[in-house]
Amino acid sequence: MAEVQLSDQNFEAEVLKSAVPVLVDFWAPWCGPCRVQGPIIEELASEVDAGKVKVGKLNVDEHSATASQYGILSIPTLALFKGGQVVEQFVGVQSKETLRAALEKHAA
Amino acid sequence: MPEQELYDTIIVGAGAAGMTAALYAARRAMKVLVISQDIGGQAATTNEIENYPGVDFSDGPSLMNKFKAQAEKFGARFVFAEVQRIEKGTDETNKPVFSVFTNTQSFQGYSLILAYGLTHRHLGVPGEKEFGGKGVSYCATCDAPLFKGKTVAVVGGGNSAVDAALLLAKICPRVYLIHRREDFRAEAVLLEQLKQPHIELVLNSEVKEIFGDARVRSLVVCDVADKSKERKIETEGVFIEVGFVVNSKIIEGLVELDERKQIKINLNAETSESGIFGAGDITNISHKQIIISAGWGATAALKAYEYLQKVRGFRGVTIDWGLAKKPTVLATPTDPAAAKP
């Protein structure tokens, strides 16, 4: 499954009210490391079990309300939401392995 | 049981050096694995590259993704993971085999190319780690826009610190530039631009601690000569630009390092350990540039190929550069012992 494009508008429905854990990649087009993280996120999204977890991307430039609500001050930030709460957060480029492990831990 | 796979060469790192090594090794028909946490390394964090010959202008990520695609085109495999440990062993014929371990997998290689570059130097002060992602940043070009309208501080005295201060000064009402010395190492043309009323230079000072709640609120600096002389600075951002260091955890004891923990290589990109090669910023070369790293990556791959020919009688593609019409002749091994039937 492809990653979900998140926005200020759909964040509540797609992330906060999601029945499964959601990994959110907070990124911006001007940020080099974010563009390194992007393909890793896409690969991860295509490999995970869509029935158990979800992977999404939020552009902090276009959707700054959500980004500032969660106090995003460094990008990329990868936040894992479960039941509407942030249960794990990573700052800086993360390997697919690290992210997959976090998703599996919280999907259980 | 962790996955075990055998490669002709395992390249650790996917910056300019590692990916060029992957391209050259793959074009010699070597079975190539690249293990890296990211793609492009430091080059991918820059938005402007104007000094890579043949490329008028590119941003870092685009150029680095081209490096990757080209290496993959010739068969190199990439794995996104952090290397935890490297072990040297031997196979049944008593020839060296290197085992590379990640969190969940292990891979074996007949040769190894270390090219994982440098990482950000940290200040090592209380609050720095705690407020990572909460106001402490190591990438001004990434995070500056998130501090628009806020008071911020930059730590460092080189070009990257001054660049960061100038970038932030465009969008922030107050910028402190904290530097351990009186003089800056940055270029004069940049220093001239620092003369702006809302940029304050805090010289001969070092950061002692960073404070905050859910995010950074202030920091305390002290005088370098007299540490009892302290000053509190209210700030919401701390941009740390104090250079780069080698993360030597996985190579300590494996290969010889210099006093800066950089891998010592010779003109053949060979390290102190036979079968292990080094390339790019992680080595003791003098200039950290994309083209130079790429050049060393190519050297390391070609020398790894020669090593495999000598030690294992490896027969890959011996003539490159599209000269396939000429009869293929195995390059004569330079080691007379290896030439014996």
Poorly predicted ranges of chain B: 323-341
Largest interface: A-B, 32 and 36 residues
Order of secondary-structure elements of chain A: EHEHEHEEH
What proportion of the residues of chain B form beta strands (DSSP E)?
25-35%
Ends distance of chain B:
39 Å
Instruction: Tell me the overall shape of chain B.
Output: elongated
Sequence of secondary-structure elements of chain B: EHEHEEEEEEHEHEHEEEEEEEHH
Number of helices of chain B: 7
Cα-atom radius of gyration of chain B: 23 Å
User: Strand order of the main beta sheet of chain A, please?
Assistant: 1-3-2-4-5
Main beta sheet strand tally, sense and closure of chain B: 7 strands, mixed
SS-based class of chain B = alpha/beta
Taking pLDDT < 50 over at least 5 consecutive residues as the criterion, the unreliable ranges of chain A are none
Average pLDDT over all residues of chain B: 90
Percentage of helical residues of chain A? 25-40%
SS class of chain A: alpha/beta
The outline of chain A comes out as globular
| Percent of residues in beta strands of chain A | 25-35%
Give the helices and strands, then pairings.
The complex is a heterodimer of chains A (108) and B (341).
Chain A: E1 4-6, H1 11-16, E2 22-27, H2 32-47, E3 54-59, H3 64-69, E4 77-82, E5 85-91, H4 96-107
Chain B: E1 4-12, H1 16-27, E2 32-36, H2 60-73, E3 77-80, E4 85-90, E5 96-101, E6 106-114, E7 119-120, E8 136-137, H3 140-143, E9 151-155, H4 159-169, E10 174-178, H5 188-193, E11 199-202, E12 205-212, E13 216-223, E14 230-234, E15 237-240, E16 244-245, E17 276-278, H6 290-312, H7 336-339
Parallel strand pairs in B: 1-2, 1-6, 2-3, 6-17, 8-15, 9-10, 9-15, 10-11
Antiparallel strand pairs in B: 4-5, 5-6, 7-16, 12-13, 13-14
Helix pairs in contact in B: 1-2, 1-6
